[in-house]
Amino acid sequence: MKNAQDLVIKLRAYGKKVFFVTNNSTKTREEFLSKFNSFGFDVTIEEIISSSYLSALYLKERNFTKKVYVVGMAGITKELKSMGIESLEIGPDPIVDDGNLWLSSAEMHNLTLDTDVGAVIVGFDQFFCYKKLFKAASYLSNKDVYFIATNTDEQFPAERKGFVIPGTGSIVNAVKTAADRDPIVIGKPVPVMFDFIQRSYKVEPNRALMIGDRANTDIMFGRNCGLWTLLVLSGVTSLQEVREFCYSRDASQQKCIPHFYLNGVADFYKLIVKTQP
Is the pTM value of this prediction over 0.85? Predict the structure, then answer.
């Protein structure tokens, strides 16, 4: 993003704290840090707030000592490991196709669950399948097992017209339906991430600005947390969609209306330089 690093430097020069908040659970904070550094960003790991990190932290803060069944990628399991929490193996878990219905197969009837599992974390999982859904719902039939969702994003932005890329929310909702339980959601738009920032860094909501390009996560997150909000039109949400939100009577869509909007981060940087050189 043009002028993004310049904006961060300028905000810090004014004594502002800057945090990068992401629902992406496929990477660890260390991996996000490496990615920032590869783009020339001067970022510290403490400034990166990810759903994978906070999902693991949620369990650690509750003195969790059992195992975790993860429907997700290595970003989650690595964060769990860094906090001393054991998780079951991730990756493909295919059903053997022998021409018969798996539910009546020997594999299914011989399948056992790990009795030491005390939590199920659901994030984005490109290997999600019926067997994983079966296992997650089965573990969650025990009401003492934590059910954590990294986020509930419905879709990822699709560059090719006519294609839909299902997001983590589609997987979470499948598990939620099968288990007949609501998850503890970590990512935007629920306030968990800002709650962590507020208690860790003493940030005052009415003096904080949430900048993002997606109204139903970034802007709604800011609204839910009592922050000022700035929508940049260089990503997911268009100005036309915002105008439609303004005429909607739906309370959730009302929360998608930003306080301010600009075409991109570069415009915000230019505005700051102009008003406070």
Answer: yes
